[in-house]
Structures are given as structure tokens and as C-alpha cells.
């Protein structure tokens, strides 16, 4: 049974689908997927082509927007849109500290989570497509990790695609996680430098907060243990369009004078815990490095190991001298599973995933080289989350792919560009730009 309802300018319909947990064993255990169909109110009765949206992540449910903002408004001019909660996220069968123990112990949980990567997501999409479009190919928009999934889609099931639109999500086809993070830390350092150039007062503020955290046992109201490494990880926002401003506003009201002396304010702690907690998206932490696993090499906490190659990110050393405190970006570390109450019960599961050596390839270079699906990709110059050089090398490896390289937007440009990014890419796909 489907349920339809209205918001300003749109008709929404809840859709639910049953798919195999393991697509190699279609007669086995199943899970549920949720997707929200969106159509413009004045086109609700029209026979429109479909656009599937694959959210960034991994581990995030699809956007919960109201009405028809930004890229969605542009898409609704000509498409019926399906916003998919990828497996384990949103309203789809969840995977978190509350549900994973139902699988058994950490070993069983880790085995279960190996089926939550791009290859399984693509095969989910193909099951859904057969039911939604009657088998007709659809246009797919992949943002960030959604673009990784779309590259896998082009490798596994290109026949399902009418057009592929990628924004900020062209992955390296063969880089190990270590190579991904070796390219990432210098980009992050540049974003921090740009932040301090915009807000020079934040350099001293960040040092004061880091010094306080180093010398005090700080536990946030939700039970999150705020270490200096956790404080540095707030820099993850610096790759988004408004991230530098959000970080600035967080830092400017960090301290309050209390009866116990100078301490971190309740307002700072409340905001920080919301930015740091993985309670709403634990899969991001659990499978983040696994999205780069494609061979017999374990990821083995890659970001943590590679960070040691960049001593300028050591907070204690920075504070002992006169170097600026460097924030970090999109990386997952083992200490997060000690600090975050939403992740603590899953620490052993995460360790087992980090040690796995049986990852299978996610991309097919030969099939991509013979691609005949119209593919366009926005590559955001100096993207903090996805390396530009890696993206452009992949763009050259996919036959017929057309790129738009721009520094007008950050990584989340498809959301912040007010429909301009999607409009430009659809025109590019039709050879109109």
C-alpha cells in the first residue's frame, strides 16, 4: 500500500520495496528499502521520465526537503523523482547499535555490513527500477558517495541508465584507502588555511579550545568524550559551502566564566555534540573506509595511519610551538568508537571490518572504457572530500564522460547552487552546453 500526501508545490508518495540482503542469494533473507516519490503538483497526472537520486555518504538517508528547493525544483520541471534511503539508512531496514546485535556478535555484524557497499546498493536500484519504471532505464543523479555508486552502476548495470549525472563524486577506480587519505590531508590543510585567512581571530580561539580540551576531561551532555582529536574533526564542515562560517560561529562562543572558572559553554557543547555524533548515521563510521576496499589489502584504519605521516596535524606539537591548530576533515578513526556513545558498542565490529581482506572490485575499467551511457560530472576544484586529480583521471577512463570543472561551488554545490548545477549538467548531457 502506498500513501500520497502534499507539500507546497509537490505530491509525495511513500514507496517501500523488498530486496535480498545478498543479491547472490535472491531466495534468502530480505530487507526493506524506503523511497519517497516526488512530483510537481501540476504534473502529478503526467507520464514523466524518472530521476533517481543517490545521496552522499555512505550512511545517510535521502534529503528531507520541504516543497521544491534547489536541485529538486529543477529536476521536477521534467522528472518524477525518487529519493532513495539506501540500505541501512533512513526508513530502510536500519543498521545501528540498537539493531546490529540482532545479527549476533561482532563477527556476524561485520559479515552483515559487507553487503552495504555500492555494489549492493546498485543491485537494489535495479530491483526497484523494474517495479517503478516497468523496466525502462532512468536518469540517476549521484551526489558525492552517490556518484561512487553511480560509477559502480555504470560498471555493473549500464542498461538501467538513460543518463548518469554525477556531482562531486567521481571516485578513483583503483586507489587504496591509503592513497585516498594521502591526497586528502594536504587538501584539508589548505581548507584550514583558507578558514584562518577569512577568520584570523579563529586561530587563537581554536588553540584556546584545544588547550582546554587537552587539559580537562570534557564529556558532552550526550556522553560524547571530547578529546582534542575529536575537536579537530569538527573541520569536516570546511568542505561545504557554508562550513567555514558555521565553524566560525561555533568557535566564537566557546567559553563562559562559571563558578568553577573558565569552561566550555553549554551552547558550544550542545552544538558540538550535534556535529560530532554519529547517532543519526552510524553506517558512515562503520563502512566509510570499506567503500575503498577492492582487493586483498585491509583498510586497517587507513586515515589514522596516514595521519601520522602529517605531523602538522598533531595538536600537542602545534600548541607547544606557534603553529596553527589544524582541523581534520572527512576521515574515520578508531578513537571515534571510544568517544561516541552511538559507536562504542560497535568498536569490535569496526575492527573486524578494518581487518577484512576479501573485498571485491566495485568498478569494471573495461566496461567503463566501452561505456555508451551519456555521463556528465561536476568536479569541484580542490574539493575537500574527493580528490580532483583522482576524479579527472577517472573521467578520462569512462568513455564519453563530459566534465564541468568549477570553483564556483564547494562539494555540496548541487544543494547550494539553487538548481544551477543540475541545470548545467543536464544541458551538458544533451550537448546543449
Key terms:
alpha/beta, 433 residues, 18 helices, nine-stranded mixed beta sheet, 13 strands, two-stranded antiparallel sheet
Summarize this structure briefly.
With 433 residues, the protein is α/β, with parallel strands linked by helices. The chain has helices spanning 70-75, 106-113, 118-132, 145-156, 177-198, 201-215, 228-232, 243-252, 266-276, 282-287, 302-307, 315-320, 336-339, 347-355, 365-369, 388-397, 413-416, 420-429, and strands at 3-7, 10-20, 30-40, 50-54, 80-85, 138-143, 161-167, 218-219, 225-226, 255-258, 261-264, 375-380, 402-406.
Structure overview:
- The chain has 433 residues and is α/β, with parallel strands linked by helices.
- The protein is 38% helix and 17% strand.
- The protein contains 18 helices and 13 strands.
- The chain has helices at residues 70-75, 106-113, 118-132, 145-156, 177-198, 201-215, 228-232, 243-252, 266-276, 282-287, 302-307, 315-320, 336-339, 347-355, 365-369, 388-397, 413-416, 420-429, and strands at residues 3-7, 10-20, 30-40, 50-54, 80-85, 138-143, 161-167, 218-219, 225-226, 255-258, 261-264, 375-380, 402-406.
- The strands form 3 sheets. The chain has a 9-stranded mixed β-sheet with strand order 1-2-3-5-4-6-7-12-13, with helices on both faces. A two-stranded antiparallel ribbon has the order 8-9.
- Helix 1 links the parallel strand 4 (50-54) and strand 5 (80-85).
- Helix 3 (118-132) packs across helix 4 (145-156).
- The longest helix has 22 residues, at 177-198.
- The two termini are 42 Å apart.
- The mean pLDDT is 96.
